[in-house]
Amino acid sequence: MCAIRPAALLILAAALAQGQIVISGNENKIDLTSGEAKIVPNAPPDSISIMRFTEFPPKVEHITGVRNSVIGPPSNIAITPDESLALIASSLHIDPQDATKWIPDNVVHVLDLTQRPPQVIQEVKVDKQPSGISITRDGRYALVANRASGTVSLLGIEGKRLSLLHTEKVCDADENISDIAIHPNGEVAIASVCKGRYLIMLRIEHGRLVVTERKLTVYGEPYRCAISPDGTLAVTAGSGLGMPDIDAVTVVDLTSDPIRTSDYIPIPSGPESLEISPDGKQLAVVVMNGSNLAPDKPLRTDHGLLVVLSRRGNTFVKTQELPTGRIPEGVAYAPDGRYIIVQTHPDKELWLYEVQGEKVVDTGKRIAVPGFPSSIRIAERPVAGPAAPAPAAATLRESSFFAMSTGTKDDQHATFAAQADMLKELGYAGTDLLGTQGLPELLAELDRQSLKFFALYSGLNIDAGGPQWDPGMEEAIRLLKGRDAILWVPMTSKTHAPSSPEGDEAAVQALNQLADLAALSGLRIALYPHTGDWLERVEDAVRIADKVNRPEVGVTFNLCHWLRVDGQDLRARLELARPRLFIVTLNGAEVGGTDWITLIQTLDRGNFELKSLLLMLKDLGYTGPIGLQGYGIGGDVHDNLQRSMATWRALHG
């Protein structure tokens, strides 16, 4: 059982006192009424409509000039749990070179709902064509599915300011990642990959996004996806080949291990959006039913459908179909669950239905909006009671295993090109770099072989008046923008003894300066404990990272350095590091060794139990990158790396 935290209770109490907000995004530049998407010449600005369901019919306020789009799932709006902010994706804009075409945008608007009238106070740049958005129920993070780039962006929310923390590649761009839903516990997300025809599980781990290998079979092309308030089920609706064939809702059981697709529920043709009621007992789906076809098509109809399904254990059953206007785009429940709102595109109207137990009734009330209604959302509240545990963590992935540059160079592999070719041949995911020199050339060779650049190793001196970091660091940070790389930071001092807390203040100040630079490119910093340095132990790295207290600053666990300066209580050290653990390095080693010859070997040598280390990491839920340390091993690097890769695969066999 998961007890709700006091902070969450405060958020919940504040949320219940708020104005029961529903927001509709209304686009004017793209019209679907002819049966295909067409640019509207000289269109007025897009708008949003804010409805407050403290009374019925709700009070409505229209705000013009907030760009949004019908191209994308109707979940490109999200509201923080306390209803203070709304995030609104600008997915597309008109091509400035050709007013008859649209191109992907990359902006998420931050709307301050506490101002009168509400105002856009920030624009956050993400990746191409931001579409579905979700916010964690504690209000700390938001996820944005970037449809034209195949990525998901993680945004941090602090007060009324947002920052881009991280963008992770999830799929090929042409697979169209469309939407994302976050589990109530804030640790797991489910994303819909529309053209790829699957859902995929992601994890949020201490301010970082991790893509797991768990893909889920669905019916058709999944678009909008949602997770039940109790965290037990995920749902999506997929389109097949169109009228007159039926389509289906896919149900995913999030309580099984592993999570799995558990049911398909037939529905009429052309699902566009769906939403689960705030109490989790009902599912509303809007379907085109042929109303989106061109007027000359024989299967064209004059109305869409609202399909109502009721919860039955670990699935839903269809209980009702009601007519609605043509081309229904989005659907949402009022925050108290008493009403359903359906957007009808051509009529520029919102249709209101009343929920009467399992039955739904058309109230006949319509709300006119100043544009084609395209997206709609309410705030997802904190969990008021027990929620299902988050789905199990993914296993450590071979795709996260890289060869550190300390063991990739010899006479036969003296160039970055030769090293990249070797790493690709042997199956390593990529490499790192010591210092900033040669970074552009290395990146080019890694890109040529579709390998990842994992980390830039560069020291930081904390002594007063000394150089803080490599002079080439600022240019390196610029070059690494968008690569999800880590700045690997050992910390040195001639003034302070190893592990001395007297250097903490200077270290925190220097790291904050470096973190400000790193944030410009979306990079993380992982403190690197190193034998003989001021930052020598795992405990030192955790202490400093905690004092810096920024989500983009974490720690490294280095097996060889831990063995040399500590070698005790491995589990305790990993548990200490785990909340901020960004990266791990390992190698073969002799227990009790005292020099690098015994403490750094290929994986097939030494008596240290690597399997135990990997099982501990898995048990602790760590799924991040693991680097193979090769410092000082010598000999034929191809042979070294080949034998280590064979052992790595055997350890996972």
Structure notes:
The protein has 653 residues and is of the alpha+beta class. A hairpin with a 4-residue loop joins strand 27 and strand 28. The model is unreliable at 1-18 and 393-399 (pLDDT under 50). An eight-stranded parallel sheet has the order 31-40-39-38-37-35-33-32. A four-stranded antiparallel sheet has the order 5-4-1-30, with no helix packed on it. A four-stranded antiparallel sheet has the order 6-7-8-9, with no helix packed on it. Helix 2 packs parallel to helix 3 (439-448). Helices cover 17% and strands 38% of the residues. The radius of gyration is 27 Å and the shape is elongated.
List key phrases describing it:
653 residues, 11 helices, elongated, disordered N terminus, alpha+beta
Describe the secondary-structure layout.
Elements: H1 6-16, E1 21-27, E2 30-31, E3 38-39, E4 47-52, E5 59-64, E6 77-79, E7 85-94, E8 102-112, E9 119-125, E10 130-135, E11 141-146, E12 151-158, E13 161-169, E14 177-182, E15 188-193, E16 198-205, E17 208-217, E18 221-227, E19 233-239, E20 247-253, E21 260-267, E22 271-276, E23 282-287, E24 304-312, E25 315-324, E26 328-333, E27 339-344, E28 349-356, E29 359-368, E30 372-378, E31 401-403, H2 416-426, E32 430-434, H3 439-448, E33 452-457, E34 460-461, H4 473-479, E35 486-489, E36 491-492, H5 504-519, E37 524-527, H6 538-548, E38 553-558, H7 559-565, H8 570-577, E39 581-586, H9 596-599, H10 610-619, E40 626-628, H11 637-651
Parallel strand pairs: 31-40, 32-33, 33-35, 34-36, 35-37, 37-38, 38-39, 39-40
Antiparallel strand pairs: 1-4, 1-30, 2-3, 4-5, 6-7, 7-8, 8-9, 10-11, 11-12, 12-13, 14-15, 15-16, 16-17, 18-19, 19-20, 20-21, 22-23, 23-24, 24-25, 26-27, 27-28, 28-29
